[in-house]
Amino acid sequence: MALPVFDDVVAAAKRIEGFAVKTPLLEAPLLNAKLGGRLLLKAEPLQRTGSFKFRGAYNAISQIPADKRKNGVVAFSSGNHAQGVAAAAQMLGMPAWIIMPEDAPTIKIARTKAFGATVVPYDRYTQDREKMGLELQAKYGATLVKPYDDPNIIAGQGTIGLEIAQQCEALGVKPDAVVVCCGGGGLVSGTALALSGALPGVPVYAAEPVGFDDTKRSLEAGTRIKNDPDARSICDALLAPTPGEMTFALNSKLLKGGFAVTDEEVKRAMATLFQEFKLVAEPGGAVAATAVLAGKLPIKGKTIVAVVSGGNVDPATFVDALSLAA
Amino acid sequence: MALPVFDDVVAAAKRIEGFAVKTPLLEAPLLNAKLGGRLLLKAEPLQRTGSFKFRGAYNAISQIPADKRKNGVVAFSSGNHAQGVAAAAQMLGMPAWIIMPEDAPTIKIARTKAFGATVVPYDRYTQDREKMGLELQAKYGATLVKPYDDPNIIAGQGTIGLEIAQQCEALGVKPDAVVVCCGGGGLVSGTALALSGALPGVPVYAAEPVGFDDTKRSLEAGTRIKNDPDARSICDALLAPTPGEMTFALNSKLLKGGFAVTDEEVKRAMATLFQEFKLVAEPGGAVAATAVLAGKLPIKGKTIVAVVSGGNVDPATFVDALSLAA
User: Fold this and answer.
1) What distance in Å separates the CA atoms of residue A54 and residue B28, rounded to the nearest whole number?
2) CA torsion, ordered A146, A147, A152, A158, to nearest 10 deg
3) Which one of A23, A163, A275, A278 would you mutate to disrupt binding with B, by most B Cβ within 10 Å of its Cβ?
4) Given this model, what pLDDT does residue B98 score?
5) How much is the ipTM here?
6) Cβ of B275 and A322 within 8 Å?
7) Domains in chain B, please, with CATH?
8) Taking the CB of the first residue and of the last residue of chain B, which one, N or C, has fewer CB atoms within 10 A?
9) Which residues in B lie closer than 8 A to residue A277 (C-beta atoms)?
């Protein structure tokens, strides 16, 4: 298993430059005063396709050799990787088939189609999406673009870590901690890899929904643990059954630990991001900020960077979260 | 009447550097495809205090001489200028009294207080806020910080125009038009002044709510016209009764024209900014984008910059707008 290294993230940053958005690091002075610390949000809802997933997808797909491009790409995704892959493939003139759970948010399915991809629905709880991906791959000769367990995907997501380091330097601050949303672990492992080179010594944490805190529990156990198949969460982007093999190999070396947050805490955090940052976050995109706002990762007297990973949320879900606004 | 000139905007940009946020220019590829044009949003909800008003306030207040600073500042405002003045005064260690309409959004009153200011309520339809401002000014020896009819305020808001020019250059595009939200006219006149020097020849338009389209009608009449005192709109930030003397002197020279949009059109635009840009806009902050999205300013085949001027909106108002999401 060839794990990505720091230089792969640097190369990915060059590859996505001019295609991905350098998202801002947002700050809310009144909230800082209330928290007694400084919370900086890396705002990936403002990324192309509304989530960080475009970074890894473009980094991976742009490296597919010329003679294989016409056969296109296949991906399986709950929605954000779907859009990232669809948009990157469209920009590179390639067809895309995306296997999506039939209960994915309407907006994510609609937008994946709008980026020109063919959506293939499946049942999240009874069908094996990885097997379906391999079948489609064989049928069309297309390249499978994995959602997280791939060196190019991890390196692409890691470009967020490089930007965090650059933006913190521009602000003249060294963060005391960085906390990152975690599903399969591609984003947090890539970000931690980038920070291990660009801001060495800064602890990096994974944040997950309760019931899907497989990375947290796996880090504690020292081995990969599966989630209870009966677990449910509103964080549709973070429902991977177990840590990736490659992502866990990185995370077990690079992460300081993990936090698990409840759906209720996530909704309150979404309302805070609305009020204080004017930012639309989806449930799964808000879990890292939730770890801070719900007090799991103490911020008093500290500067913490939280990655807000996406903003593709149905209006009804957002309205429900706003009912918890202070 | 000494009108501000282009160099005043350049000086303001230096003054606010490091204090105000250089807000991003956001883009939504799927929306562009649907519109058949390129819509770039200058995202001032991401500005310190959640609106552009901090720019002018900091530019004006930071120029108050040392011996007058301890007496503080007085301002009258429906809420965004209030927060801009309160935050700038707090950063400069000065007391602030803010005269606010008693029906201003709760969030705006609460946040003005949170920035350390003393809020003085008044009745928007029966009391004269300008007279109250002068009385408070006399009582405390404080400096009055006008909301728009002041060269330093106009120059400060105009820094948005300089940033638009820089950001368009970085993207390699020259916009076909720039459209700006308009209440008293400080933002649009400052932006047009900046663009007259930084992007000469690009037409600049004012966008206003129906019933409060005094700038549009005044431009057409060639003289300042008042709004009907019985007019109402959800765009609480844009309810000035008539164009400012100074802002109209600039706007009548610099603007190409104006657009009036309905509350219903504004709510639909707020829902689009939520879905496509993951950005929280308040009603008054969305009117310029509304002029494009509702088809008043045709975008097909063109690149248009719309300034989204603020995002300080109560959850209930936002939820109401989201009910119109497509």
Assistant:
1) 13
2) -170
3) A278
4) 95
5) 0.95
6) no
7) 6-51+151-322 (3.40.50.1100), 54-144 (3.40.50.1100)
8) N
9) 46
